[in-house]
Design goal:
Structural class: alpha+beta
CATH class of one domain: Alpha Beta
Strand content: 15-25%
Number of strands: 18
Bound molecules: flavin-adenine dinucleotide
Number of helices: 18
CATH topology of one domain: Vanillyl-alcohol Oxidase, Chain A, domain 3
Radius of gyration: 22 Å
């Protein structure tokens, strides 16, 4: 993998673009101050020791804060006319460098374009910068809920659909890329054209823009599907032996109505989570966001497997707290507790439960954070002390032999259907200005099916 930072753009072009953007959008919408440029040149890459070794990967020369979807198109048109690269940015929580401006140029910061435009029966329309938690709260006010959201609940809808994969709700609805026309109903997208404008696309036409980091078009507005709201509670259980909680995950996930989240981890990972009396030290933890009508059945399952229900807490605040301890978040907490020690790999499949001791043996000191998933068995994050990229890669064959699916996330290239994104980008971004540096073939085994 090349770690070379691509060359920055000619200063004269940046100065001319900044002047035009100030004319078009006003002074407050444009900045070339060091602190602002620094802030938009980093993302959540510190989660990855592999990428940390390669930083910095690029630096913005200009940042623009469009206040709404129309202004996003105006800023893109101006940048194209000046031949300046454009890197879109939501909240910047993507953890592997995908939002880093590798060719310099302009960062399009969506944080001010965050309006909830409309909430209707079964749908919500929001501007790209709207935080996921704000979207869920707006849906709840109408007796509805979003199908799915990531553990980074403050991240933006534009960033989630462009860079994210799944989260709370995926256990029922699947991952972002597996629900064509189901999660994202429509988008307003902007191509890299000198007369850039909003283009409204629905269903499968919209789907081809998802999870490709904005390389083929920048999403300005998103329409997501909503479903009727359910009465959710957060249930915490503890186990003396993590095998028991891992074994239980499939039975808890099979409760009807389906839980929104079922997470479990062994004592070291659970002890690294924010302290809470419902997370007793030295025990494995099972955490469930479940429909209130299933609390009794879940309790019976847990106690039957030798576990103890530590707490059941109703309401949005309590369930959001569990979401923020799911998916990648336990790895972040682990790294806070033990800075610089651990790396992680995304893993999936029934072998994670059925052959867990062999899975743990692949990397010395390994431990698993597990989530129930809709398809393909449970999935999660395998964390282990980092001894170098080569050692990490060496474990892949052994995982495959055990029947463990894996995805090496420690790289910033579009690796979900990259050929399709490249073909689309050739039409929608002929000058290669959209998020440059992300549309190349990775020379590492990412494990993702092409
Ligand atoms: C601790 C931790 C936990 C996480 N947990 C999850 C999880 O549970 N599930 C999950 O899916 N992800 C997770 N992530 C990854 C990431 O936080 C999410 O995918 C998040 O939703 C990204 O949103 P963002 O607003 O921060 O996007 P950013 O990081 O700003 O952007 C993500 C990518 O999309 C591009 N982009 C941003 N906005 C747009 C736009 N409007 N149009 C086109 N392209 C755009 C960016 O250039 C970048 O390539 C986690 C990350 C961390 C650090």
């Amino acid at each position: 993998m090349s770690t070379e930072t691509l060359p920055a753009v000619d200063t004269e072009k940046i100065t001319a673009l900044a002047a035009e953007l100030r004319e078009l959008l006003g002074d407050a919408a444009v900045s070339d101050e060091d602190a602002a440029l620094e802030r938009v040149s980093v993302d959540g890459s510190t989660l990855s020791p592999v990428i940390m070794e390669k930083l910095p990967l690029g630096r913005a020369q200009l940042v623009v804060y469009p206040p709404n979807a129309e202004a996003i198109a105006i800023a893109i048109g101006a940048a194209v006319r000046h031949g300046v690269p454009i890197t879109p940015r939501g909240k910047g929580t993507g953890n592997y460098g995908q939002a880093i401006p590798m060719s310099g140029g302009m960062v399009l910061d969506m944080s001010k374009a965050r309006a909830i435009v409309e909430v209707g029966d079964g749908f919500l329309i929001a501007e790209a910068g709207a935080p996921m938690i704000q979207i869920e709260q707006a849906a709840n006010k109408t007796g509805q809920q979003v199908l799915m959201f990531p553990s980074t609940v403050q991240s933006s809808i534009g960033g989630f659909v462009s860079g994210g994969s799944g989260g709370t709700g995926s256990i029922k609805h699947g991952m972002l890329t597996s629900i064509v026309g189901g999660y994202v109903r429509s988008i307003d997208v902007v191509h890299a054209e000198s007369d850039a404008h909003l283009l409204h696309l629905t269903g499968a036409d919209a789907h081809v823009y998802l999870h490709n980091y904005g390389v083929a078009g920048i999403i300005a507005r998103v329409e997501v599907a909503l479903e009727p709201q359910q009465p959710w509670s957060a249930l915490y259980a503890s186990f003396d032996d993590f095998h028991d909680s891992f074994n239980l995950i499939r039975a808890v996930a099979a409760l009807e109505p389906t839980p929104r989240l079922v997470s479990t981890d062994g004592p070291t990972l659970a002890d690294a989570l924010p302290s809470d009396e419902a997370l007793p030290a030295g025990k494995a933890s099972l955490r469930v966001i479940l429909d209130d009508s299933t609390i009794e059945a879940a309790t019976a399952l847990i106690e039957g497997a030798g576990g103890t229900v530590e707490a059941v807490r109703p309401g949005l605040q309590a369930t959001m707290k569990l979401s923020m301890m799911s998916y990648n978040h336990p790895i972040e907490w682990l790294q806070k507790a033990y800075p610089g020690v651990y790396f992680h790999i995304e893993v999936g499949g029934d072998a994670l439960v059925d052959r867990i001791d062999e899975v743990h043996e692949i990397y010395p000191g390994a431990m698993l954070h597990l989530e129930a998933m809709a398809q393909g068995g449970p999935g999660g994050m395998l964390a282990a002390p980092y001894t170098g990229e080569a050692d990490m890669l060496a474990g892949f064959e052994r995982m495959r032999a055990l029947g463990v699916g894996y995805h090496n996330p420690h790289q910033w290239f579009v690796d979900y259907e990259p050929e399709r994104s490249a073909a689309l980008a050739a039409i929608t971004d002929p000058l290669g200005l959209l998020n440059p540096g992300k549309l190349l073939e990775p020379d590492v085994d990412t494990g993702r099916k092409r």
